[in-house]
Amino acid sequence: MSQPRTLITGAAGFLGSYLVERLVAQGHHVIAVDCLHTGQMANLKAFEGLPNFEFLKHDIIEPLDLKVDGILNFACPASPPHYQSDPYWTWKTNVIGVMNMVELAKKNHARLLQASTSECYGDPLVHPQPESYWGHVNPIGIRSCYDEGKRAAETVMMDAHRQFGLDIKLVRIFNTYGPRMRADDGRVVSNFVVQALKGEDLTIYGDGKQTRSFCYAEDLIDVILKMFASEKGFTGPVNTGNPGEFTMTELAELILQMTGSKSKLTYHPLPSDDPTQRKPDITLAKQKFGWEPQVPLKEGLKKTIEYFDHWLKTQA
Ligand code: NAD
Ligand code: UDP
After folding, report:
1. Is 146 part of the annotated catalytic residue set?
2. Which of 23, 166, 182, 228 has its CA 20 to 30 A from that of 17?
């Protein structure tokens, strides 16, 4: 296959745009699909006009008919305020959207990789979380459109694999950050960095003792592409993330120190069902791909701070 035709959905979003960058550079013919709900065309500007890049504005809850060899399905709002703003549509994206991708993959005999999430583990009672853990998830809470939606998507994918022999791959992505997130994305790293740079109060939800493990985007993309290239039959799920674990107060203090900001830490109510702890067990990814994250939090934050600093100055 000289030039694989690869569909990336959610391509104008944070992670999707890194996939476009890597696969265009590797010589794939990239078909970038996005409905531009949280995605930004600015993330794709560098590729416009390239002969091996095309953009299609499309919502994956509607069927899509294209000639493709492989699909990376990253379409879905990922930030709690965004996925909760229209929960019914988030659910459709995760279930009907994924079923549409399955149909497209079936028709083309194409490989389909699904961006799943650590949210499949809910508020985990097992720590760190291995892939074998079934999770602790509230099916009727405000996060369910996303976490139960992504769990349902995994079910759709596994059933399509067992029933139709579809070539599938599942990656459970843990909190990932870096340049090209939106300033108003709403997730914690972009919130704290933008607040610190603007001299605004940093908004800690709850007591700040809850933990997350933060992976730098380029590290994550390395393992996603290894998974996408892995042998047929290896479906995963595979945990992908950085096991370094931090409380939200530690993150806020580090960002204040690195930006030299005089902003204050302020405490706000914890949203319901907010997981108290999260850390990936990445033994499988290490064994299978010899992969582990290379970018420590401080180094990744430095690049992220530089990105938002530049972004804020050019908006002024
Ligand atoms: P993002 O919000 O920046 O990107 C999502 C993109 O998908 C946006 O461009 C949005 O417009 C597009 N989109 C959403 N619904 C769509 C639909 N129905 N049809 C077409 N396009 C649609 O978020 P992100 O952080 O880049 O996340 C990308 C994927 O990775 C998501 O599926 C998310 O669930 C998954 N993920 C991300 C993380 C993380 O920490 N970044 C963690 C776990 C899982
Ligand atoms: N959080 C916070 N302040 C913010 C945004 C988020 O304290 O301005 C907290 C949030 O309550 C959660 C953690 O940071 O405990 C990570 O939140 P994020 O939305 O980034 O990711 P997720 O909860 O989906 O892991």
Report:
1. yes
2. 166
